[in-house]
Design the sequence.
């Protein structure tokens, strides 16, 4: 049996940073040694792992730019020798009618034409289901817990408001390719039944099929059924079934240390930019007993020294008789977010928060912080770029969808990068315990 020394097996492209770590977490759980890169590495750079995840910041940029970045990532992953490819997006299918899920999927399918074993190679699934976090798909409709997507709070998302739970309709608005549905009654019958459904969908001209899934067992079934597809797309959940395909093919060795990371010393801090319900609850839980500093975007826009004030607050608590980690946050309620966006504009408000938290992250590192918990996909992207992070080794799971990570360089950092909607209310404290090696 071969191992990762023969080259990586699965090459993944994620449209945001926390989504990338979420996917990498799933692969580590499946026994794949996984490395995540921040952006597309240099063409000559080689990384040893079973799975590679390229983290882009392409979810809300113009579709043409998202396509170009995704194709560049695909080119690098193919040069690394990857045998199958995965396009990862959010479990709430975050997108607009202009993209970017449909356009990127079309471009990747075009680029991979002729590279697989299926008859036409122009087919893939779209399955954002993540039952462990309450995301399920039935008859093509996405549920978040017991609520339809468009009644879950995602209809208020500031950048990608999701107002339709029917993913067949949502995806069809983004692509000229025909979109179909792999129904639950087919998935429930097993992988052979799903493969037959795929063949029927392809013969009917379908290029992308939303796939129903209500449980992890369904995701394992879908993963097995996708073993011969050059490209798989979805949330991190559908990746549960992919490692076993490589193991059955004799390409992946059994291992119990896929998520082992070095222990990293230094101070700790939490940065939160997401305005999701989950992150708002996490901020509230932290503030009950721990120090927190709130960023006011309007004050930053007026030129007030918000970054310096936040760092002074952090220094005070780091150097106190009983040193404490701090939370610095811009998290706000939907109404507060709308008020700031009305004042500054949607794009400007988002960039201002991201740039401010990125500058604070650099300052915290100068204060000796080596362990960062970051909430929000856009915030995580801004922070890791500000810290110069290029490559992450993926460790054990903290909460569903969120692993611990460590940078691969001479001055390592420990990071927990959390999608806004993920994690229990005590996530911040729990994540710090993980990064400090206490759990």
Sequence:
């Amino acid at each position: 049996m071969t191992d990762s020394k023969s080259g990586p097996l699965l090459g993944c492209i994620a449209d945001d940073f926390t989504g990338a770590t979420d996917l990498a977490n799933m692969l580590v759980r499946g026994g794949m040694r996984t490395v995540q890169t921040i952006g597309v590495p240099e063409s000559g750079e080689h990384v040893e792992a079973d799975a590679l995840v390229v983290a882009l910041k392409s979810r809300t940029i113009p579709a043409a730019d998202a396509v170009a970045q995704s194709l560049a990532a695909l080119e690098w992953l193919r040069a690394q020798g990857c045998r199958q490819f995965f396009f990862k997006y959010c479990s709430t299918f975050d997108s607009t009618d202009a993209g970017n899920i449909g356009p990127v999927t079309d471009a990747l399918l075009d680029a991979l034409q002729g590279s697989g074993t299926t008859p036409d190679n122009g087919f893939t699934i779209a399955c954002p289901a993540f039952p462990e976090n309450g995301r399920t798909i039935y008859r093509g409709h996405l549920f978040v817990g017991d609520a339809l997507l468009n009644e879950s709070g995602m209809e208020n998302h500031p950048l990608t408001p999701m107002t339709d739970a029917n993913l067949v309709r949502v995806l069809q608005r983004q692509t000229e390719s025909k979109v179909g549905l792999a129904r639950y009654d087919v998935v429930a019958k097993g992988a052979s039944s799903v493969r037959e459904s795929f063949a029927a969908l392809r013969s009917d001209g379908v290029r992308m099929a939303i796939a129903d899934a209500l449980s992890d067992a369904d995701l394992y079934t879908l993963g097995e059924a996708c073993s011969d597809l050059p490209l798989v797309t979805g949330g991190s959940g559908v990746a549960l079934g992919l490692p076993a395909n490589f193991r059955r093919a004799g390409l992946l060795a059994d291992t119990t240390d896929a998520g082992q990371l070095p222990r990293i010393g230094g101070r700790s801090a939490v940065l939160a930019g997401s305005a999701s319900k989950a992150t708002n609850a996490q901020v509230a839980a932290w503030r009950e007993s721990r120090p927190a500093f709130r960023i006011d975007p309007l004050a930053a826009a007026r030129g007030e020294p918000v970054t310096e004030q936040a760092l002074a607050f952090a220094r005070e608590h780091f150097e106190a008789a009983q040193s404490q980690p701090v939370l610095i946050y811009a998290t706000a309620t939907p109404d507060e977010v709308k008020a700031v966006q009305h004042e500054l504009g949607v794009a400007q408000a988002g960039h201002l928060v991201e740039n401010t938290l990125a500058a604070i992250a650099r300052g915290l590192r100068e204060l000796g912080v080596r362990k960062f918990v970051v909430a929000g996909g856009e915030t995580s992207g801004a922070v890791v770029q500000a810290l110069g992070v290029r490559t992450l080794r993926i460790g054990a799971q903290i909460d569903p969808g969120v692993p611990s990570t460590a940078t691969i360089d001479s001055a390592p950092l420990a990071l927990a990068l959390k999608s806004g909607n993920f994690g229990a209310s005590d996530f911040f404290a729990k994540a710090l315990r993980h990064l400090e090696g206490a759990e």
About this structure: Residues 1-5 have pLDDT under 50 and may be disordered.
